[in-house]
Amino acid sequence: MSFELAYELVLGWRYTRAGRATRRNGFISFISGVSMLGIGLGVAALVIVLSVMNGFQKEVRDRMLSVVSHIELISADGGPLEDVTGTLEQIKSNPKVIGAAPFIAAQALLARGEDMKGVLVRGIDPALEPSVVDLSAGSMSGNQALPGINELVPGQFGIVLGIDLARQLGLRIGDPVTLIAPNGQVTPAGVLPRLKQMQVVGVFNSGHYEYDASLAMLHVADAGKIFRLEGPTGIRLKIKDLHEARAVARELAPTLPMGMALRDWTQQNRTWFAAVQVEKRMMFIILTLIVAVAAFNLVSTLVMSVTDKRADIAILRTLGASPRSIMGVFMVQGALVGVIGTLGGMLLGLLIAFNIDVIVPALETLFRASFLPKDIYLISRMPSDPQMSDILPVVLISLVLSFVATLYPSWRASQVNPAEALRYE
Predict the structure, then answer these.
(1) How does strand 97-112 pair with strand 176-187?
(2) What's the pTM value of the predicted model, to 2 decimals?
(3) Residue 7's pLDDT is what?
(4) 158 and 86 in one domain?
């Protein structure tokens, strides 16, 4: 049995590379090479695209969580929370919670001269905020852990802006800016908007355009005065494992007073993450079809090879080779094309995926184009995160499709009649 297996492997390998030795089979060899190249390029494309989508999702999630908390506890009616101190102690008693900080969330307008911009205002406690969020990456305001946060002193009405928001309004640290609150003052002349002169004390860069262009942070006490709130409207939580946010929220819910609601980071951005998952599945299906087309090119390659090798098949049969052995020879020939193409494509895909941070900037410089405008794609560089859970299915599917494509031509080779094949030789 071992001799028969070695004979099939050796003969199948020789048929795979026969075109290089003789010109008679050059065209068949060319078609075989095209099939191998098609499988390789299809697998490489799948590996690259899935790696980029994984990296894109991870990059946006990490940058988003530099501003968005893992879990938020808010008042069901949108008003200030009751017994904030007791609630904080209750939350911190859970071993999975590593940080908690109160906040006030509101919307307002920032104005500088004739320029005006709608912003999301967040009142924070500078002493507790570092325990729930990290804005150190890419910060522009010195070496502070949270740039400008320590400059938020109650009563001085300082404000910290996202870097893109500051650029849009032409603001720098130390510049004055007017905050316009939506709840106005009732006067004999009518309802007038509440205006407050603020001073920019810091600029942060989270790397997430949506927040860098719309978020402004104040001291929680100053925000309470401006928006006429008696206390924080919510509490931000940070947990040990961000992937357990939903489970931790369910654990905390029964322990909290009535009138409070919990939402985790996946709920706040559910639409975006769902869209990414759908797009990833669709890209996988579309690119798998490319691999399938390339794999089934093996059918035509092997059919032509069987036709060309009819005399060889007849001689092998007269020497005692069984139909099963003949079928095995051509299955080895087709499988080798699939294996070489798949492994080559996987290596090419991984090579590009691991170096995409160098390749894409070079292409952008060469073509003088930006492939990822950050105001559209949230990030400005091409990320990549190859994962075995994606690569292994791609390789297995490619190998299975290649194997299936060899079945019919190999079976047809096993049915060749030696007498008919040798009649015209």
Answers:
(1) antiparallel
(2) 0.66
(3) 63
(4) yes
